[in-house]
Write a structure and sequence with these properties.
5-stranded parallel beta sheet, two-stranded antiparallel sheet, 6 helices, 37% helix, globular, binds flavin mononucleotide
Length: 188
């Protein structure tokens, strides 16, 4: 089993990264780490979009821009670490997901117009921390849940988060510990 760890928590002493490492330490699988803070990931723009559309039509995915989608499709479990930024996911994670959502690599469409998955993973874990409070069904988690449901058919989506950790007087370590305790309860 290979776990793909997509790390969008790259601030020095990141609490989110720390929580993700604690999660990964509960697994016995091989972990492949992708540090988004060190990747030169760009959102699709005029030239790259033209290429992406052309390659999708011809199913020619030799370009380097498809390496993220290929790696994602092969993983058995996906773990994403992301801090909550501007009421959403960090832009680099969004740009990464845009490339991962390449039709013909991580999903495709049948003649009836239904999406089917080309991903091996049956489980995706999102680990998030936020300075303020995050509503349970916030757009950050709903966006990932929708991609999992519609494109990748990943039914086991787990969301572990500690919010309000920058609020004055809050017991930060207590909040982080409470998340770590949930890992133990939800492992099969
Ligand atoms: C660019 C930026 C944007 C942020 N936006 C929000 C926000 O919209 N809501 C919120 O609750 N916290 C926000 N925060 C605070 C972070 O969510 C919080 O500090 C988080 O725990 C950071 O995780 P880290 O320790 O892994 O870096 C923001 C922080 C940064 C640096």
């Amino acid at each position: 089993m290979t776990v793909l760890f997509v790390n969008a928590a790259f601030r020095e002493n990141s609490r989110t990264h720390d929580l993700a490492q604690k999660y990964l330490s509960t697994l016995t699988d091989t972990v492949e780490t992708l540090n988004l803070g060190e990747e030169n990931i760009r959102p699709l723009q005029k030239a790259s979009l033209e290429q992406y559309c052309k390659d999708s039509r011809s199913h020619d995915f030799q370009d380097e821009m498809y390496r993220y989608a290929k790696q994602f499709a092969k993983a058995d479990e996906i773990v994403i670490a992301a801090p909550f930024w501007n009421f959403g996911l960090p832009a680099v994670l969004h740009a990464y997901l845009e490339l991962v959502c390449t039709q013909g690599i991580t999903f495709d469409l049948n003649e009836a117009g239904e999406y089917y998955s080309l991903c091996q993973a049956k489980k995706l874990v999102l680990i998030l921390t936020a300075g303020g409070n995050v509503p349970e069904n916030d757009c950050a988690i709903s966006y990932l849940r929708t991609l999992c449901k519609e494109f990748w058919k990943i039914e086991d989506v787990r969301y572990y988060y500690a919010d309000g950790i920058d609020l004055v007087g809050v017991d930060i370590s207590g909040k982080l510990e409470a998340v770590i305790k949930q890992y133990g309860n939800s492992q099969e």
